[in-house]
Design a protein that fits this description.
Layout (H helix, E strand, L loop, with lengths): L1 H9 L17 H18 L3 H25 L26
């Protein structure tokens, strides 16, 4: 893509979208990314790879679950910003009655 070319040429990096399903499944590139991340963390901290990858996957799944639940039922906090000040029956929609 054009964005990927720009990242490679200007920023000397790469762009890989990480794709997840709401059930916790991962795309091919996301799996590669998590394996590489777990290997680097395990090597740096001197921990076992399987413990690190399990921790990363668990945190990711709970984050996806939390996000999915918020999308389905909304947040528990009352929102005052998005509530309308007007009752829907008080709004003149300028509608023409169809006969």
């Amino acid at each position: 893509t054009a964005y990927n070319r720009r990242v490679i040429e200007v920023e000397h990096g790469s762009f890989t979208p990480l794709i997840f399903s709401t059930a916790g499944g991962m795309g091919e590139e996301a799996i590669k990314y998590h394996k590489r991340l777990a290997a680097l963390i395990a090597n740096k901290r001197g921990e076992e790879y399987n413990h690190v990858i399990t921790f990363i996957r668990r945190r990711l799944r709970f984050s996806i679950l939390r996000t999915t639940l918020m999308a389905l039922r909304g947040t528990r906090r009352p929102s005052t910003k998005h509530r309308s000040r007007y009752n829907i029956t008080d709004i003149d929609m300028n509608l023409i009655q169809y006969e």
